[in-house]
Design a protein that fits this description.
Elements lengths: L9 H19 L5 H15 L5 H25 L5 H24 L2 H7 L4 H17 L7 H8 L13 H8 L5 H46 L7 H30 L17 H5 L4 H22 L5 H20 L3 H27 L5 H22 L2 H7 L1
Length: 401
């Protein structure tokens, strides 16, 4: 049976653009064909989970029913009351399927993975949990089942983001851009498609398919004779780290470009991250929809909770604890393996050091010029590359397998 994975090969884009052509024509003439848009999205989602992935399709249906009922029930409750424990319970239940999926491999719960696991569960969970939090805050006051489903199952970003926000999405989906704006969106979409092809099908192919297996093989051979260490590990660090960026950034560009064709301004995921001047600047440029989600819904809420409860007197201590907790949670989200958790701790501690350095610079008037900026970019780039070497799991293969 036919199974089509999003943005996996050039023929996908031919089918995609042919399917979206009527929608684009309608938007150009000031009409949004909502029903046609939903049908196209559902067909592509069906093809995504068809064939050997049929069980993931069933898991998606079960998951959506669960989230639909949960968000609807909490919205009804929030109109009448605002108990913190009910909010914590709703948030926990919203995140529960994802938590079980992340625990399942380590606990060898294969039945859980089969029942609940499907591509994109993380990004759907981030959307639904954010809706519960914003409903608690009063930002979302009503539950529209139709808009909820369109938001959760928005086809371009269903599998790997970017992570949109409900209110921003609804603002786009219920309106039609002017012709001038839509033409500008199409121009951006064409550019993003071409840039995505360069990133994913050329640069990522060269790095991940042609170079990476070769340098990994040389590293393993050399390390076997040098007690687990090899100068080739530096090559693995650069090749694997750059491959991660170009592959994921290319995918994200395709998702954004597709959403622009559909008249939706999905947020960008990357903004020249390797030009970051420090680690905090890096997280404002790298996988931005994810890092901003963790910043807004975990870091800021942890800071607010600790300040409200007066657990610590020093704001610096509060922010440092929140940095480490936030990044550790991000590490656990990637998976229950030592290298993901170590990656989260690495960046949590890195952000603490980063803030301490910024305070020191401000207090002691450390010189700031083009040379120091370039030096900061180089240092930040290499700190990030070292963290990617940890994150991508090659060290686990090199040292423990």
């Amino acid at each position: 049976m036919l199974n089509i994975q999003p943005y996996a090969d050039p023929k996908y884009f031919v089918i995609l653009l042919l399917a979206l052509a009527p929608l684009a024509i309608g938007l150009y003439f000031g009409k949004r064909f909502a029903l046609y848009e939903v049908i196209v999205s559902l067909v592509f989602i069906f093809l995504m989970f068809n064939g050997s992935k049929y069980h993931e399709g069933y898991a998606l249906v079960i998951y959506m029913i669960w989230q639909w009922l949960l968000v609807w029930a909490y919205t009804l409750y929030r109109k009448k009351s605002n108990n913190s424990w009910v909010f914590y319970g709703a948030t926990f239940l919203g995140a529960l399927p994802l938590v079980l999926i992340k625990i399942a491999p380590a606990a060898n719960w294969t039945h859980v993975s089969t029942l609940l696991g499907f591509m994109g569960i993380s990004y759907l969970t981030f959307r639904s949990v954010a809706m519960i939090m914003e409903t608690r805050d009063g930002s979302i006051k009503d539950f529209d089942p139709w808009l909820f489903l369109r938001f959760m199952l928005f086809m371009p970003a269903i599998s790997s983001g970017p992570i949109d926000r409900y209110r921003r999405f609804v603002k786009d989906i219920v309106t039609v851009p002017t012709r001038e704006k839509y033409v500008a969106m199409l121009e951006k979409a064409v550019w993003y498609f071409f840039l995505g092809f360069l990133y994913k099908f050329i640069l990522a192919y060269i790095l991940g398919t042609l170079l990476l297996p070769h340098v990994e093989h040389l590293t393993l051979l050399s390390a076997s004779a040098h007690h687990g260490w090899s100068w080739w590990l530096i090559a693995v660090m650069y090749v694997d780290g750059l491959y991660l960026f170009f592959d994921f950034a290319g995918y994200s560009l395709f998702a954004v470009a597709t959403s622009y064709v559909m008249g939706i301004e999905l947020p960008m995921n990357f903004n020249k991250p390797f030009l970051a001047k420090n680690l905090k600047d890096f997280w404002n440029r790298w996988h931005m929809s994810l890092s901003f989600w963790f910043r807004d819904y975990i870091f800021m809420r942890l800071v607010f909770l600790m300040m409200k409860k007066k657990w610590f007197k020093s704001r610096v201590t509060i922010s440092n604890i929140a940095y480490i907790a936030n990044m550790l949670i991000m590490g656990f989200w990637h998976g229950l393996t030592w290298y993901y958790i170590a990656y989260g701790l690495f960046h949590g501690v890195g952000l603490v050091i980063n803030d301490a350095w910024l305070r020191y610079k401000k207090k002691h008037n450390v010189p700031h010029n083009k040379f120091t900026e370039i030096l900061a970019i180089i240092i930040t780039f290499h700190v990030v590359m070292i963290s990617f070497l940890l994150f991508l799991g090659f060290l686990d293969k090199l040292w423990f397998q």
